[in-house]
Amino acid sequence: MSTDACVIPAHLHPADARFGSGPSRIRPDQITALSAPLLMGTSHRQAPVRTIVHRIREGLSELFSLPPEWSVTLGNGGSTTFWAVATTSLVRRRVAHAEFGEFGHKFAEETRRAPFLEPSIIVSAPPGETIELTGDEGASDEGSAPDAFAYPHHETSTGALSPVRRIGGSSALTLVDATSVAGGVLVDVTQTDAYYFSPQKCFGSDGGIWIALLSPAAQERARKLHGATDRWMPQILDLSVALDNSEKDQTLNTPAIATLIMLADQIDWMLAEGGLPAMAARSRAASNLVYDWAERSSCATPFIASPQWRSPVVVTVDFAPEVDATRLAAILRANGIVDVEPYRGLKRNQLRVATFPSTDTSDVEALLSCIDWVLPRL
Ligand SMILES: Cc1ncc(COP(=O)(O)O)c(C=O)c1O
Fold first, then answer.
1. Tens digit of each residue's pLDDT (9 = 90 or more) over 14-70
2. Whether residues 154 and 213 fall in one domain
3. Number of folded domains in the chain?
4. pLDDT (tens digit, 9 = 90+) per residue, 221-267?
5. To 10 degrees, what angle do helices 275-296 and 257-272 make?
6. For residues 359 and 59, what is the distance between their CA atoms, to the nearest angstrom?
7. How many Å apart are CA 321 and CA 324, to the nearest integer?
8. I want to staple 207 with a disulfide (CB 3.0 to 4.6 A). Which of 104, 115, 127, 200 is the partner?
9. How far is it, in rounded angstroms, from Cα 63 to Cα 276?
10. What is the pLDDT of residue 15?
11. CA-CA distance, 355 to 264, in Å (whole number)?
């Protein structure tokens, strides 16, 4: 596909042309923070790096207004690893999942395949919608009642946002995948027991670690399952080991120190800018520009039909068949405006634009001007 003829005038370009849904844009100050003396290339068991981890844990407690008995726990491997951690360390016998896209499905697949668990209950909605668990899942079958309920707060593959609320009775845990929306939307984390995410989305850092905000009930479950004899629990998947290490501002094994430094810098920035309400407002303003543009357009529509489910941080826009969105994204990429391709598995004639808190509205306005310039030239 030749994109040669389409050179977008320079004055239309965004100042920062990174619109990816993760890894996402990193603010220049975060990169500068990496050059602080005696930090990169030093031991993660010594004070300078442990101070960074401490800052992260304290900062997240403040950002999410965590009650004192909650824990900010972290480990290596990203949210994908946390799914395995949750499977071994938070699900006692059976879990019910809501899935409405690729990532909810992936967690459900992990627990479905765990030989020590009863068959998981999976409630699905098609991509583009959301579905909520009721807490009654499994009531009419032979299996145990679920002791954990799991759903994504935000499905990055589609840009659908779910309400966050506690599911099930007092002995069940609510596990919420907030990988790509934590830090970009208001939330009452006390409606959950594990609210987990990765740093390469709203926090504009690099990947490789998972962070979980854990209620006392989740901590207690992890401590109890530590001694379980019905399952093999490698140390890296043992949440009680991660809890112990996090209390010492460490991780079980060597972390990517750059990820930690850039994460700490972003949390400081978020708090200085006004915390979660300010971040949610930034993302909502930036995403609304795209939704409003698509509503006005004669050839584009927001993929998420219902406004209440529309993500403030990942905007998906469908194009009419006469617009080749793959070519549109390729032309933008050839002009240095990157990562607006749709989620690969969704296979839609679509663009996906991330509006995480680090994204200025002026960059989104410029992106839309570039798209408007390219459309008649496709
Ligand atoms: C909603 C959601 N959950 C989980 C993951 C996996 O995160 P990681 O790549 O950090 O393992 C992603 C990654 O994009 C995601 O968007």
1. 999 999 999 999 999 999 999 999 999 999 999 999 999 999 999 999 999 999 999
2. yes
3. 2
4. 999 999 899 999 999 999 999 999 999 999 999 999 999 999 999 99
5. 90
6. 21
7. 7
8. 200
9. 6
10. 98
11. 20
Alpha carbon of 292 to those of 106, 135, 312, 315: distances in Å? Answer: 32, 36, 13, 11
* Sheet containing 173-177: order of strands: 71-76, 209-214, 194-197, 173-177, 148-152, 95-99, 121-124
CATH number for the domain that contains residue 158: 3.40.640.10
Q: Which domain holds residue 187?
A: 28-271
Question: C-alpha dihedral over 271, 276, 282, 285, to 10 degrees?
Answer: -170
Query: Where a domain ends, among 271, 288, 306?
Result: 271
Separation CA 134–CA 320 (nearest Å): 36
Q: How far apart are CA 272 and CA 201, in angstroms?
A: 19
pLDDT given for residue 20 in this prediction: 98
Q: Are strands 95-99 and 148-152 parallel, antiparallel or unpaired?
A: parallel
207: Cβ below 6 Å to ligand 1? yes
The confidence score (pLDDT) of residue 359 equals: 98
Identify which of 102, 104, 122 has the alpha carbon closest to the alpha carbon of residue 112: 122
CATH number at residue 341: 3.90.1150.10
Mean pLDDT for back-to-back runs of 10 residues, the chain (378 residues): 81 98 98 97 97 98 98 98 98 98 97 97 97 96 96 98 96 98 98 98 98 98 96 97 98 98 98 98 98 98 96 98 97 98 94 98 98 96
d(CA 226, CA 239) in angstroms, rounded, equals: 8
24 lines ligand 1 (CB under 6 A): no
Helix pair angle (78-89, 239-247), 10° resolution: 120
Q: How many CB atoms lie within 10 A of CB 349?
A: 17
**Atom 5 (ligand 1) nearest CA:** 79
* Tokens of residue 7, six digits: 């050179």
Q: Which residues, in sequence order, are CB contacts of 31 under 8 Å at separation 6+? A: 262
The identity of residue 307, as a single letter, is P
**Model-level pTM greater than 0.85?**
yes
Query: Ligand 1 within 6 A of 240 CB?
Result: no
Considering only CA atoms, which residue is closest to atom 9 of ligand 1?
A: 78
Q: Distance from the CA of 74 to the center of ligand 1, in angstroms?
A: 15
What is the residue type of 221?
Answer: R
